[in-house]
Model the fold of this input.
Amino acid sequence: MSRCTMILALISALNLVALAVTLSLPSRAAVAGMNYRALTNDPDFTRAVQSIVQNCKVNIDTVKLKC
Done:
């Protein structure tokens, strides 16, 4: 294999590792000093999220959310 091909293979492998780590780690929001658990237990935040989601349409075939 040429040197260029080996470099491209290494970069691709590193990208796959980075993608796997990114997809594996859950996102945890912090809003107004509240962590994930506090936000899920906050009735105002829950109501706000529900009102936003009610105005959205989900296309399951293309896995897209349109608001």
